[in-house]
UniProtKB/TrEMBL annotation:
GO molecular function per UniProt: polysaccharide transmembrane transporter activity
Species annotation: Gimesia alba
Keywords: Signal
InterPro entries, per database record: Poly_export, Poly_export_N
Name of the protein: Polysaccharide biosynthesis/export protein
Transmembrane segments: none
Domain Polysaccharide export protein N-terminal stretches: 65-148
């Protein structure tokens, strides 16, 4: 009996060694740790972009200023009634009731303004209308029928000009950020299986509402959290053929022809004036050319000369000629937008791109996972681990790495995190973070960047302690409880 008792410690020792040997030789990460640069020695150029602190730009920069009076241009449909010419004497003028309440009912026969900015009327021929107000055009037509052509008696004419249908611009808006069906798990921010279908709409924007802000308002507002903080404007072919999106007011007799201070100001109509025909009036900002990029390749504002290339070598959204408008700006950052940048034309495309590639991955004791980075604020290593652990706790599975590394309680868990960061040259940079030090010193909380791989692993001492706690201690407590139950049953 005594000999049997002496052999018991040896048996337990051999049993302990048998249990620890697999831990040492099965490729445990604690025995073969990943080496990396300590977080406190990480160079500034590898710390990545800061997302926090940005503010939304002034939304009025995305809207064009409307003139005091409506200026006519090609695409407008006028209501014209000229008694004795377009309509017989003593006849009631035809009345047009529009389908929308935004336009008032009008009198007269429909006369569209042609592409060259003119209208054609009986007996007098072509009349230039582009850039005129309705009052100015009516006075021009009256003068031609009375004093110039002597067709109607001056003072007894009945000429009515009204706007029957204002012009509109057909724009395509493609928004890629809308997430419809989600297949698979939806725990936390895990985005595996997310289906991005997006939306696409063709909208008609009325004159002086044909800008980026109104296009966004018609299609769902500003880009969502799963979209980039930028709006892309792809110019259509119609923009190169028609520059008169915001026609300039015609100079009248009371205007100063040398005053170029405010070219969008409406001139007062004088009693006698002569419209100045303009075959192709230019936009107010002639410094900007069609196809000129808003930003240069280094991110600065492009101020030099630009000539549209005959061959497009870059087929991506970064090619020249596509305007990129940022929505949020860092403190002190300025955005350079002209009126031509935000005004939309027939055939233009407004594109909002999703940010599916802004994700980070987890591995090791955190388990495999793929998570979306926040768009408007920074996520450090502690936040990334919290997100991953929250998804594990919510999936009814036992977590290998508990929260003790963050809460500093008595439970054994990993305190060693490795961030594998992809560099532009194709290599990767391992960054080592001590979670206990990161809790005490916020400067060591490395910010997570798109494409980072976060691996949580034990140190050698933590691995042995966790193994003993989770296997030997749990087994010993279970055996003790079973023996107590058996002993209690035998006593009865």
């Amino acid at each position: 009996m005594l000999k049997h008792l002496k052999t018991m410690p040896a048996i337990k020792w051999h049993l302990l060694c048998a249990l620890l040997l697999p831990l040492l030789f099965n490729g445990c990460a604690a025995i073969h740790p990943i080496k990396g640069i300590p977080a406190q020695y990480l160079p500034m150029e590898y710390k990545g972009e800061v997302r926090s602190g940005k503010e939304t730009i002034d939304l009025s920069l995305l809207r064009q200023p409307a003139p005091k009076h409506y200026l006519l241009d090609s695409g407008d449909v006028l209501g014209v009634y000229i008694e004795g010419v377009l309509g017989q004497f003593k006849d009631v003028p035809p009345v047009h009731f529009p389908q929308t309440q935004e336009v008032a009912p009008s009198l007269g026969y429909p006369i569209p303004i042609r592409e060259d900015g003119t209208i054609s009327l009986p007996l007098i021929g072509t009349v230039f209308a582009r850039g005129l107000t309705l009052t100015q055009l009516e006075e021009t037509i009256r003068r031609k029928y009375t004093s110039e052509k002597k067709i109607l008696r001056e003072g007894r004419d009945r000429i009515l000009i009204s706007l029957q249908k204002p012009r509109s611009y057909r724009v395509l808006v493609i928004r890629q950020e809308n997430a419809n069906d989600i297949v698979g798990t939806t725990v936390g921010n895990l985005n595996v299986g997310r289906s991005k279908r997006g939306t696409g709409r063709v909208i008609n924007l009325p004159a002086y509402n044909n800008d980026v802000l109104h296009a966004l308002a018609e299609t769902g507002g500003l880009p969502g959290l799963d979209a980039e903080n930028s709006i892309y404007i792809i110019r259509g072919a119609a923009h190169q053929m028609n520059h008169s999106i915001c026609p300039q007011p015609i100079q009248t007799g009371s205007a100063n022809p040398n005053n170029d201070g405010n070219r969008q100001q409406i001139q007062q109509v004088s009693d006698t004036y002569t419209p100045i025909p303009q075959s192709s009036p230019l936009p107010s900002d002639t410094a900007f050319q069609v196809g000129q990029p808003l930003y240069s390749s280094d991110g600065g504002f492009y101020s030099g000369d630009f000539m549209a290339p005959t061959v497009i070598n870059d087929s991506t959204m970064q090619r020249s000629g596509i305007i990129k408008i940022p929505i949020r700006l860092s403190p002190g950052e300025q955005v350079h937008l002209t009126q031509n940048d935000i005004i939309l034309h027939d055939g233009d495309v407004v594109f909002i791109e999703s940010r599916d590639t802004e994700i980070f991955y987890t591995g090791g004791l955190l388990g495999g996972g793929q998570y979306t980075l926040p768009r408007d604020y920074d996520l450090d290593i502690l936040g990334a681990i919290s997100i991953a652990q929250a998804s594990q706790n919510g999936s009814n599975t036992k977590s290998n790495g508990g929260p003790s590394a963050l809460n500093q309680d008595v439970t054994i868990s990993a305190s060693n995190a490795i961030i594998l960061r992809q560099l532009p040259n194709g290599t990767q940079l391992p960054i080592k973070v001590d979670l206990y030090e990161a809790v005490r010193h916020p400067s060591q909380r490395v910010l997570i960047q798109p494409g980072d791989y976060v691996i949580l692993q034990y140190t050698k001492s933590e691995a042995i302690a966790a193994f003993v706690e989770r296997h030997l201690l749990e087994g010993a407590l279970f055996g003790l409880a079973a023996s107590n139950l058996q002993g209690g049953g035998g006593g009865r």
